[in-house]
Amino acid sequence: MNKGCNLNRCGSLWLKRLSKGVLVSSILASSLVVPQSPVFKGNSHVVEAAEVTYTVNATNLNVRSGAGTNYSKIGSLPNGSKIQVIQKLNNGWYKISYKGRTGYVSGTYVKTSGSSSASASIYTVTADILNVRSGAGTNYARIGQLKQGTILKGIQKAGNGWYRISFQGKTGYVSGDYVRTANSETATSTTYKVNATGLNVRTGPGTQYKRIGLLKNGSVLNVIHRESNGWYKISYNGRNAYVSGDYVTTGSVRTSTATARRLNVPIIAQRPELPSGCEVTALAMALQYYGVNVSKTTLAREMPYDSTKLVRNENGSIKIWGDPDVGFVGTPFGNGFTINPGPLKKVLDKYRAGGVNLTGSNFSEVEQHILQGKPVLAWFTISHEMPVARSWQTPSGKTINAARPLHCIVVTGVDSQYVYFNDSELVKNVKMPKDKFIKIYNAMGKRALAV
After folding, report:
1. What is the pLDDT of residues 62-78, one digit of tens each?
2. In this protein, which residues make up the domain named SH3b (predicted)?
3. What's the start-to-end Cα distance of the chain, in Å?
């Protein structure tokens, strides 16, 4: 058997990656905490100090009505022009003063000089709850907590990715993974949604181009710009693609320009109790994030099972086994395969309402749930590499595509470049380039469960 959730099926790769020291230290660092009131308060809008100079570093730099190339052009600035910057946004664009009105320019073509003490030392907490510790590491005692959105002023880098802060009259330390510079704003932007039962995604702006995907009704589009023929150029699974504007509706909403978020989901080790129980371990992590104190073993006993006995071919490959759309195949306490999001959601529904089976959804849907503060279980690989194909038949003749080495993780964060997730085998939070993550997620059947 070859699923990452079972040591016998992980091989030497897993053994090399996991040591006892990592296991113990990660478990100690992952305790769930109870929210307290934030300590730091203030205005999250930050203007950089006047001593910073911003200069155009392009032949001509377009000035637009919003922070993106999909917004209308309202002017241009020649090379070498000095720019009056109001604010730098999370997506790399600058909000500027232009001819008596507000405009936006891409930061790619802006050169800065001088220093900015105003913005360099002001940060915002991005985690729902951020622990403050007595030293720069999770092995130090927790002395307090900060809520998401808390403004941190005058903080200093302490090394190893941690920051030194002033906390209730004494020195404290916070992880840099859960803070960012305080430069986001709320603005009016246009949303684009699919208004059809299914909308074809194509390689070019027309029906003569190859179809590369399908978007469900209500899906939110990441539009780059609108073509002259009414088609939209969009970002789709990490690449550029096109959809017909005839089936897209637009609307204006108040939304944050931020496209990144990290959730402070506790990390739980699946071993030694559940060598094949990555799915219920991941669900336990997500539920404990909401304060639902249920153990992984309780969830393992409560989830549905497919009791079909394993039958092998003469060469040792699997001939007949169960269907993960029915329930868990095998046993999480020993030799097992997986359970799919549909039947696992039945267990989730006992403890928390509002879960969403995202099976078949593009990663952009997963990302939206993370940005809304909801952790998402994703069916992945334990090797964090592309899977190997495998299949068997159920007693009724259904073919089960069982790519390996299968694993289930909890997606805890996203930004423009990376996906962050909790891994119950490594017992730590992992960072992976977004394009690589999406390829593996797609290859594993686009299976996910938002909690």
Report:
1. 998 888 887 889 999 99
2. 51-114, 120-183, 189-252
3. 29
CA distances 338 to 136, 352, 391, Å, are: 39, 22, 13
Angle (CA) 25-277-386 rounded to 5° is 85
Q: Are 344 and 279 in contact (CB under 8 A)?
A: yes
Rounded to an integer, what distance in angstroms lies between the CA atom of residue 370 and that of residue 300? 25
pLDDT (tens digit per residue) in 76-127: 999 999 888 777 776 678 888 788 677 889 888 888 765 444 334 567 777 7
440 touches 407 (CB < 8 A): no
Rounded-to-integer distance, Cα 438 and Cα 436, Å = 5
Q: How far apart are CA 44 and CA 126, in angstroms?
A: 12
Number of neighbours of residue 35 by Cβ within 10 angstroms: 12
Report yes or no: 321 and 392 within 8 Å, Cβ to Cβ: yes
Least confident of 154-163, 257-266, 436-445: 154-163
Domains of the chain as residue ranges with CATH: 7-32+266-450 (3.90.70.10), 53-113 (2.30.30.40), 122-181 (2.30.30.40), 187-256 (2.30.30.40)
Is there a contact between 92 and 108 (Cβ–Cβ < 8 Å)? Answer: yes
CA separation for the pair 235, 216 (Å, rounded): 15
Backbone φ, ψ for residue 246 (5° rounding)? -65, -20
Amino acid 252: pLDDT: 53
